[in-house]
Amino acid sequence: MEVVNAADSAGSTDFIKKAIAGATEPTTFAIGTEINMVNRLAAEYPQHTIFCLDPVICPCSTMYRIHPGYLAWVLEELVAGRVVNRITVDDAVQANARTALERMLAARP
Question: In terms of residue numbers, what domain contains 41?
Answer without folding.
Answer: 2-52
